Target: BTB domain-containing protein
Amino acid sequence: MNVTSSTNDASDTPPSTITLDVGGQKFKTLLSTLTSESGYFHSLFSGRWAGTPTEGESYFIDADPDTFKHLLRYMRRPGVFPLFWSKSSGFDYSMYKRLEHEASFFQIDELSAWIKRQGYLDEIQLQIGMPLEQSINLIAPKTIKGNEEIDHHFFLESRNVYLCPRRIHIHRGHPEKCGAACRKVQGDAAVEYEEEQSVRVVVTSKTFQFNN
Ligand SMILES: [Zn+2]
Model:
């Protein structure tokens, strides 16, 4: 039998790599990865009360493996905080809540504090562009970057347009163009207007940026 693990030894020196059985899922890592970031593992493997090995050489930890893998990822690269965010649904708050709970349990203080103060909100910046009016005729296919979003907002507008009493087309909408002949036809009659509908297009843009 190949016994490379010292976990069954009477000695207080644990092996440099360790296999954790977290809720049925195995994770192999360096012992120093666990003990340098987690107060829980530091105590567990400090020799004072080294955990009891189960199923051969793995330590059983009763925790959710899906959440634990994020803890382990963090412990392996401390300072690289997890980003649970997607453009369509935003931040995954329930995931952060779960992770914060587990980080507190395993005493990974920096991670737990970062989630508590919602440090992840600073990781994503949303730049809102100036709304721009655009002629509907100028809407054309466009290539944008993966972190950009462009929305077109359409407004149906109606306005009253001045009508020349002589119905001269180029005077339409321009009472100042009507001359004496037009005013003569107008006489004392009320000025006529015609309702005209138009589509106003307002373009808004958003750009997401990661702050790493
Ligand atoms: Zn006129």
